[in-house]
Specification:
seven-stranded antiparallel sheet, 152 residues, mainly beta, 12 strands, three-stranded antiparallel sheet, globular, 41% strand
C-alpha cells in the first residue's frame, strides 16, 4: 500500500517531484523520490554527513562530480554519492528526470519543507533569476543545522 504522499506531485525549484517511498514506510531507512528539474537550479558542491545519495537518470543528461570523479550520465545510468564525499551535479539538457535514493531517509523532510503541493499538471519552468536571498539563507540554515549538509 502506498502512502498518500507517494501519488502527489510537489513543486520544487522550478520543477517537481513525487515521493515513491517515504521514510515513514521504511522506519527511516530510506526514501525514494522521482524528481524533474530544469537546467540551472542545481545545488552547489556539498557534503552530506548523515546520508548517502544514489541517482538514477530517467530522462536527460547530467554531469556529476563525486569527489575527484566527473561522470557524464545519460538515461539508464546510476551514480552513487556516499556521505562525507563532496558532490554536485549539473543538468546538461533543458531538464532532467531522475530518481534519488536517500539512505537513511530523513533528508526527504527537507524536500517537503521547501516545496509546495503541485496544482494541476506538473510543469517545469526555469526560474528567472536566483531565489530571494532570505529563502537561500533559510535553506542553507536548515541544511547545515538540521541535516548536517555542508557546502564547499
Amino acid at each position: 500500500m502506498k502512502a498518500e504522499s507517494a501519488i502527489n506531485f510537489r513543486a520544487y525549484q522550478g520543477g517537481f517531484f513525487k515521493t515513491l517511498i517515504s521514510p515513514t514506510e521504511t522506519d527511516g531507512d530510506m526514501a525514494l523520490i522521482e524528481m524533474t528539474l530544469p537546467q540551472g537550479v542545481e545545488p552547489p558542491t556539498h557534503k552530506h554527513t548523515k546520508e548517502d545519495e544514489t541517482f538514477y537518470l530517467l530522462d536527460g543528461e547530467m554531469t556529476f562530480q563525486v569527489g575527484d570523479k566527473v561522470i557524464h550520465a545519460k538515461q539508464g545510468e546510476a551514480i552513487f554519492a556516499p556521505r562525507m564525499v563532496p558532490h554536485r551535479f549539473v543538468i546538461n539538457t533543458t531538464s532532467a528526470r531522475f530518481l534519488t535514493l536517500i539512505t537513511p531517509g530523513d533528508l526527504h523532510n527537507y524536500f517537503l519543507e521547501f516545496s509546495q503541493p503541485q496544482e494541476g499538471e506538473p510543469k517545469v519552468v526555469r526560474p528567472e533569476g536566483p531565489p530571494p536571498a532570505d529563502l537561500v539563507a533559510r535553506i542553507a540554515e536548515q541544511l547545515t543545522q538540521k541535516y548536517k549538509i555542508f557546502f564547499a
